Every structure is written in structure tokens, then in C-alpha cells.
Amino acid sequence: GSEMCIRDRLNALEKLDEATAELRTFLSDPEISSYRVVLQPEKMVIREAERAISYLGLFNYPVDSVVVNRILPDAAGEGEFYRRRREIQAKYLQLIEDNFRPLPIWRAPYYAEEVVGFEALSRLAVDCFGNEDPGAIFYEGTLQEIIELEDGSLRLRIPIPFVTGSDVRLRKRGDEMFITIGNFKREMILPAVLAKRKAAGGTLQNGMLEINFKPLEKSSIETAADNERARS
Predict the structure, then answer these.
(1) Which DSSP letter does residue 35 get?
(2) Could you tell me which of 56, 2, 13 has the C-alpha nearest to residue 34?
(3) CB neighbours (10 Å) of residue 226?
(4) pLDDT digits (tens, 9 = 90+) for 93-108
(5) Residues 6+ apart with CB under 8 A from 33
(6) pLDDT value, residue 67
(7) What is the pLDDT of residues 111-126, one digit of tens each?
(8) 202 near 168, Cβ under 8 Å?
């Protein structure tokens, strides 16, 4: 009885693995699937959206655009509070433009009433996508690629076709990378495989930014073990 139970569980796991692999094939096929990240112009929300796109790209899931929701509209006779909120949003909207290009960015306003029902949803669709077909694929291509080099270092490749310049400056803080190329600035969230490594410089050629990351440093325990093996 116990052997049959174990065998049934193993068969179930095997079927689940096969079904998951088939599902992943569909979800990662840009001819069938695409992903859109929806965010609000707020700092923490932007960071989480960057992290989501980073990991979607890491596993080859195709992202085709970004939707920015709840943008405050222009209003006559606005007070100081409203004016200040719009200034803050304007700053974050520019940050979104810099950090998520070359992805197309769609904008949806903040409505006074809830977006509930067919009429409200239709208005949202028109305000966001205009005359474009929301079912179309708006971007095709790799947003980031990680290549392993022979010496154990890793290379991150990011398309930035809209920036020119040769002086690439990098500043890394934890899993955050701050990139400056001339007047252009970009902030991004690094996947865990890169966050633990030190950046070794970057270059921009033909619209492709390449950043090298050094091999992981060995801990003192691993170094001591290697020395002990060498002596023996």
C-alpha cells in the first residue's frame, strides 16, 4: 500500500512537471503571450515594477509595455496640496520614462469616480490606448540579457537605443544600480544573481549597454579550505 502511494505521488509530480513545462512554453512565447506592468507614479511602486520586469526578463517572459495609472489631471483653481502632488507625480513620470524605455509607456488618468462598469472601463481604454488596439504587441525584443564569461564574471546587456555617449558611470547600492551616461540617468533593480557581485565598469556601443560584474569573492572559510588543499 505504501509503495503504491509513493508511486502515485511520483506519477502526479511527473505530470505536474510536464504540465508546468508546457505552460511555461506558452507563457514565454511572444507570439502568444505578453506582459504589461501596471504602476502608479510613486517611488516604492516604481521600484517593485522594476523588480518585476527584471525577473520577467531573466526568465524570458516577454514584456511589451508599461501602464502608468492614476495620473492626476490638470485642474482649474487647484490648491497648494493638489499642485504639490502634481509636481511630485511629474518627477516620477520622468523617472518612469527614463527607467523603462524602450518599452512603450501608456498613461491612464486618476478619475473622480470608481472605474466600475462597461462605460467606465471603455472610457479608461480610450484614455489609455487611444486609437491603438490594446491586443496588439507593442514591443518585441530582449530587455536584458545575462551572459556568463570564461573567467566566471557575468555581463549584463541592456538595450538603450535612445542614448548616445561614451562616458558610462555606475554606482551600485545593494540590488540597485544607478547608471549615468552624459545627461541621461537610469536606476534599475538588479536580479539576485548580480546583486551580490561588484560591477567592473560598463560600455555603450550601438545602442547596447554592457555592464560587467566580477566573479563572486570567496569567503574566508572557502579560501582557507583551498589553501589547506593546496598544502596537502
Answers:
(1) E
(2) 56
(3) 11
(4) 999 998 898 899 999 9
(5) 26, 27, 61, 62
(6) 96
(7) 988 999 999 999 999 9
(8) yes
Q: Are 71 and 107 in contact (CB under 8 A)?
A: yes
For residue 25, what is the enclosing H or E element? helix 2-27
161 neighbors 207 (Cβ within 8 angstroms): yes
pLDDT at 221: 44
Residues 6+ positions from 50 with CB-CB distance below 8 Å = 99, 100, 187, 188, 189
Sheet holding 208-213, edge to edge: 145-148, 154-159, 208-213, 199-205
Which residues touch 93 (CB under 8 Å, ≥6 apart)? 41, 68, 71, 107
DSSP class of 118: H
Question: Residue 163 and residue 31: Cα distance in Å, rounded?
Answer: 29
For residue 104, say if its preceding peptide bond is cis, omega within 30 degrees of 0: no
CA distance to 3, 33, 43, 200, 201, per residue, from 111 (Å): 61, 30, 21, 46, 45
Give the integer Cα–Cα distance in Å for 104 and 29.
19
The CA distance from 155 to 194, in Å, is: 9
Mean per-residue pLDDT pooled into runs of 10, the chain (232 residues): 62 66 76 89 92 81 92 78 90 92 92 91 93 90 86 89 82 89 87 88 88 77 49 54
pTM of the model: 0.72
Residue 31: exposure state from Cβ atoms within 10 A (0-12, 13-18, ≥19): exposed
